User: Fold this.
Amino acid sequence: MTRLVELEDSGPRRLDPSDIDDEKGDIAVCQCGLSDSFPFCDGSHRATRDEDDDATYVYEDGERREVERVVTVDSNDE
Assistant:
């Protein structure tokens, strides 16, 4: 499966001790790109459990849509 994820930030997110979950004692970092509290995991990855390995998806407003192709534009060409 492939998932199209767009991020708006242009730099790293540094974690510090205040990011530790008081109840769990850990920090879960999002790897799917869907978390509303990105870069922290909020469980949104559960929506990806039944993705087809041969498909490409985009998630918008909590809805999954399969896309036929992804076209990228080089920012230097704009």
About this structure: The two ends are 30 Å apart (CA to CA). The first strand starts at residue 2 and ends at 4. Strands lie at 2-4, 56-60, 63-67.
